[in-house]
Amino acid sequence: MPITGCGPATLEILRFFRIYAGKDNKPAEYATDNVPYVPRYSFPISLSGVSEGDFTMVYGFPGRTNEYLSSYALELIMNHTDPIRIALRDVRLKNMEEVMRDNDTVRIQYSAKYASIENAYKKWKGELRGLKRLNAIEKKRKTESAFGAWLDGSAERNNNYGKLMGDLKNAYKELTPYSIASDYINEGAYGIELLAYARNYLALADSAVNKTANREWVEKECERLINISKGFYKDYHPPLDETIASELLEIYFRKTDMQFHPAIFSDINTKYKNDFVKYASDVFSKSFMTTQKKQEAFLKNFSAKKLLSDPAYLLMKSFEDVNKQKVAGEFNKAVAATSLLQRKYMASQMEMHPDKKFYPDANSTLRVAYGNVKSYKPMNAVTYNYFTTADGIIEKYDSTNYDFNAPKKLLALISKKDFGRYAKDGELPLCFIATNHTTGGNSGSPVLNAKGQLIGTNFDRVWEGTMSDYMFDPEMCRNITLDIRYTLFVIDKFANAQRLIDELKIVQ
Question: Which domain holds residue 452?
Answer without folding.
Answer: 7-11+37-61+366-507
